């Protein structure tokens, strides 16, 4: 496999910030309306304490080409074991199997960390992420119309997906 996957470290935070901000500016993948600063992304990475985590995918040349996270689903103890997963791929690497590689590794990590459910909350018109959810056997459990805007000012429906681990 031409890609590698590992937990994010300090030296990855600039690439994580750049990839995320590309998604913010393009619209269609996040409800953040403005790019995040390096310090904001650093704080976000640091907030992911075990069993949660942030991970990166590297190309063969060692470049960070995507990142993903296992995050708290809902901050109440009864939801422990349920993770909200998210992933972002460098635009130059989209459509090259990085998302499939990333989601496979995130689910492996979730299982190794004894998660019982994984959830994905995505814009309902995000064709690539919807296809990945279906490919990995996620079930759609909800749709919230006109739930969020993106940086382009487009109002988007949110779709909610889960997978029993």
TrEMBL record:
Domain named N-acetyltransferase: residues: 3-165
Keyword Acyltransferase part of the UniProt annotation: yes
Enzyme class: transferase
Gene3D superfamilies cross-referenced by the UniProt entry: 3.40.630.30
CDD domains in the cross-refs: NAT_SF
Pfam families: Acetyltransf_1
Keywords: Acyltransferase, Transferase
Keyword Methyltransferase: no
Enzyme Commission number: 2.3.1.183
GO molecular function, one term: phosphinothricin N-acetyltransferase activity
PANTHER family: N-ACETYLTRANSFERASE (PTHR43072), UPF0039 PROTEIN C11D3.02C (PTHR43072:SF23)
UniProt-recorded name of the protein: GNAT family N-acetyltransferase
């Amino acid at each position: 496999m031409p890609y590698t996957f590992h937990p994010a470290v300090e030296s990855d935070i600039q690439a994580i910030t750049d990839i995320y901000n590309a998604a913010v500016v393009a619209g269609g993948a996040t409800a953040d309306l403005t790019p995040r600063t390096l310090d904001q992304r650093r704080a976000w990475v640091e907030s992911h304490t075990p069993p949660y985590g942030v991970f990166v995918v590297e190309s063969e040349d060692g470049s960070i080409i995507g990142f993903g996270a296992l995050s708290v689903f809902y901050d109440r103890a009864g939801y422990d074991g349920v993770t909200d997963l998210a992933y972002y791929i460098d635009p130059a690497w989209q459509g090259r199997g990085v998302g499939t590689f990333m989601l496979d590794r995130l689910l492996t990590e979730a299982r190794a960390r004894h998660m019982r459910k994984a959830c994905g909350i995505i814009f309902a018109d995000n064709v690539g992420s919807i296809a990945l959810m279906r490919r990995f056997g996620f079930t759609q459990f909800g749709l919230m119309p006109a739930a969020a805007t993106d940086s382009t000012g487009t109002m988007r429906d949110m779709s909610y997906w889960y997978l029993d681990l």
